[in-house]
Amino acid sequence: MGDFVLNVNGAHVRVNASSEETLLSVLRNRLNLTGTKYGCGEGQCGACTVLLDGRATRSCLVSAESAAHAKIVTIEGLEQDGKLSPVQQAFLDAGAFQCGYCTSGMILSATSLLHERHNPTEEQIVEAMEGNLCRCGTYPRILDAVKRASRSPVQGASR
Amino acid sequence: MSRRDQPVLELGQSSSPGRPRSLQLARRDFLKVLGGGLLVCLTRTSAWTQESGRAFGGHELPKDVSAWLHIAVDGQVKVFTGKVEVGQNIRTSLAQLVAEELKVPFDAITMIMGDTDLTPWDMGTFGSRTTPTMGPQLRIMAAAARETLLDMAAQRWHVDPTTLTAAEGRVIDPQTSRSFTYGGLTRGEKLVKTVSSEESLTPAPEWKIAGTAVPKAEGRDFVTGKHKYPSDITRPEMMFGAVLRPDGFNATLASLDTSAAEKLPGVKVVRDGDFIGLVAPDAFAAQSALAAIQAKWNVPAQPSNQGLFEYLKNNPETGRDDGPQHVSGSVAQAMAGADLKVEEQYTVAYIAHAPLEPRAAVAEWDAGKLTVWTGTQRPFGVRDELAEAFHLSPAQVRVIQPDMGSGYGGKHTGEAAIEAARLAKAAGKPVKVVWTRSEEFTWAYFRPAGLIEITAGARRDGTVVAWQCHNYNSGPAAITTPYNVANQLIQYHAAKSPLRQGSYRGLASTANHFARESHMDGLAHAAGIDPLEFRLKNLADPRLQAVFQAAAAKFGWGRLKSTPERGFGIAGGVDKGGYVATCAEVEIDPDGKRVRIRRIVQAWESGAVVNPDGLRNQLTGAIVQGIGGALFERILFADGRILNPHFAQYRLPRFSDTPQVEVVLLDRKDLPSAGAGETGLVGLAPAVGNAIFAASGIRLRNMPMAPQSGMQGESNTQFRS
Ligand code: FES
Ligand code: FES
């Protein structure tokens, strides 16, 4: 067991966990940040996506300890002063979910993409989001939401 | 007057006489918490009784078949239903229907769903039954409540109730402009009243809230991560459970050593007959302890994909009902006289539901009462499973279904719930069990594989005269043909399935439509008639004709000519009250191998549309989900093991597989609303297969039609996707 500090959503939290325990497991089961989802545990579905220093990362593939030096942002950390981030707002406006289980991963992947690329083409969005599964098949609306967000004046700017 | 027309309205803590005592108490406690107000109780209705009778084989009908709504003093309305929200948007659409009839703002409604202590008994959420059965139930109750409120106001004002109107949660007297809020009216009054409400339902053309694109209820919680899915539930002092799985199906334990696991801090191994599980203080420790268990299993020899379809044909399930045989005329005679004859076999593979949230449950025992939060489409069914497993009365078990990471027919059962309850009982603390992806792929159940043999004959002018169809194992849903054929013999044959199989979105409707609509296409080509024209020629049902015509018009059918690189196909059908026609455009690489679906136009009609936005979302989702089973999804198995229990090996539709999708809704406000969660899936596979044929001249009769690599023991396809 290791003792380390994580910087999650702007707060420093002390964690006591095995050095092998994944960031996903620590977020969900020790920090009760359950917005980050388990879908496969193997990097194949994107449900567990979080931002590490602004980049979309599969939290099921990295150990929590290895993330100790990064700025971690989960879905719970996107809202600022009660205001949704542009990507969150775009997903809500586009109704880009059915069961919603993939939604946090989708939003974080899109946030990371729009951080890197301000006006992605459809092909670039598809390529960047290909690792995120939506079993409900909401892809057309998710594409629409990402495009809406990319047109938003403050897209991806917050984090 | 039928009983259906007589909802009984009572104020306060009502109970119906046949209601089981315990449930009565639980509800009564709950209603105390809610405080006073108008409580609506609808007595047994014909629609409900029929549905229940089907599920229970006509016996053991629960006397408690009431649905409820509650109007609080502040005007907030709580609606209780045993149906569950799994992404199909019924939390929103049912609330719209209630708001419409009750004449309150949409936001005044809170739906209480899928909680066995709080909601009336319900068979489960499947079969596209929510909109056609629960919708009318709740509408009738809401309309009855509205009429009662009008009467109450009329009494207070000493006026004729028919001079009053209800709107925005108020009763208004248009003569004087005075008004009462609903909450203000119900306060302190006691009321029992019988209302005839069928005739007071608001007709669809007058709908203001129903029929509109109200956004998903509580949508914000899904973009902020606040919504708690079953796997997100936590309880004080909760431990984490894990279950040891055998090495294969039907395996027996040869040896077991749990000593290393038991030495780990806080870990407790639980053995109960064949069940071997453990609890640990955290999820990581539980998985580590599970990995430390040494077990050896004997796995018996058993069937694999190799020769599966002959196996299904040759191994009838004798104990199971094959359902009715559909016979008319004489197929043999008609075939003898037919100009064109087409005889083919079609197959569908086992596929997995693969809901993104796997099975999960949190169980808690408290003074002999068991409470389980779990993801299921049948909370009451799981309650009964738990009661049976632990020798409890159903009243001692409460199942709560938080809106889950979906099911698609795959979560009818309570495996994780029973496991969590067993471990929690042994641990003396609440326990959470979340299945891993490979557990979900292996130990849940599958969409049945099946073999369908069709022999059909037509006259040279394109009139289909004979239709014979045998379906082995895949299922009887939508097995009958919607086309006019004088001579028919249609039969489903239950088989011994090598794999555990069960419900799936659309059931066998997908397989039966794939076979029928591919076969119709084959007949059309044999007759040299355009596939759309051929279908319309053999159809009498105007609703099905209408969707075919609408899809074709939007798609540009007739103007589009297939080439070897680009094919256009059409297919359609009807099931569970939903009419669908699907047009597909596929692109085939110049090397003639790789298939991509480029465009789908789907026309849909299921009566009056309750929420067009939710409906479009469902239909688009069904199309995308259909792509998987059509082109590449299939379970590979051998020696009692699933060979591809991971997303890396079991391919699901992704962004890059998604074509341009256009949905055309035909809103029939003159017809009752039917469910739309399933049948939107069934046109895709045959439309795509027909498009591939139009381009290549190759008829694909096995789903999936273009898997990554050839499936063991199956006729190979040259196509990849
Ligand atoms: S849970 Fe991490 S990618 Fe699926
Ligand atoms: S909305 Fe259900 S998995 Fe995407």
Account of the protein in words:
The complex is a heterodimer of chains A (159) and B (721). Helix content of chain A is 33%, strand content 16%. Chain A is built from five helices and five strands; from the N terminus they run ββαβββαααα. The N and C termini of chain A lie far apart (31 Å). Chain B folds into three domains: 212 residues, Aldehyde Oxidoreductase, domain 4, CATH 3.30.365.10; 146 residues, Aldehyde Oxidoreductase, domain 4; 302 residues, Aldehyde oxidase/xanthine dehydrogenase, molybdopterin binding domain (Aldehyde Oxidoreductase, domain 4). Chain B contains 18 helices and 30 strands. In chain B, helix 3 packs parallel to helix 4, helix 14 packs parallel to helix 18 and helix 17 packs across helix 18. Chains A and B meet through helix 1, helix 2, helix 3, helix 4 and helix 5 of A and helix 6, helix 8 and helix 17 of B. One FE2/S2 (inorganic) cluster (FES) sits at the interface of chains A and B.
Give the SSE map.
The complex is a heterodimer of chains A (159) and B (721).
Chain A: E1 2-8, E2 11-17, H1 23-30, E3 49-52, E4 55-58, E5 71-73, H2 86-94, H3 103-116, H4 122-129, H5 139-151
Parallel strand pairs in A: 1-5
Antiparallel strand pairs in A: 1-2, 3-4, 3-5
Chain B: E1 8-11, H1 21-34, E2 38-41, H2 46-55, E3 68-71, E4 77-81, H3 90-102, E5 109-113, H4 130-157, E6 165-167, E7 170-172, E8 179-181, H5 182-186, E9 192-194, H6 220-223, E10 239-243, E11 252-257, H7 259-263, E12 268-272, E13 275-280, H8 283-291, E14 294-298, H9 308-314, E15 326-328, H10 331-337, E16 340-348, E17 360-366, E18 369-374, H11 379-389, E19 397-400, H12 415-427, E20 431-434, H13 437-443, E21 450-458, E22 464-472, E23 487-493, H14 509-527, H15 531-537, H16 542-555, E24 566-575, E25 578-588, E26 595-605, H17 612-632, E27 637-638, E28 641-642, E29 660-665, H18 684-696, E30 702-703
The structure holds FE2/S2 (inorganic) cluster (2 copies).
One FE2/S2 (inorganic) cluster binds next to loops of chain A.
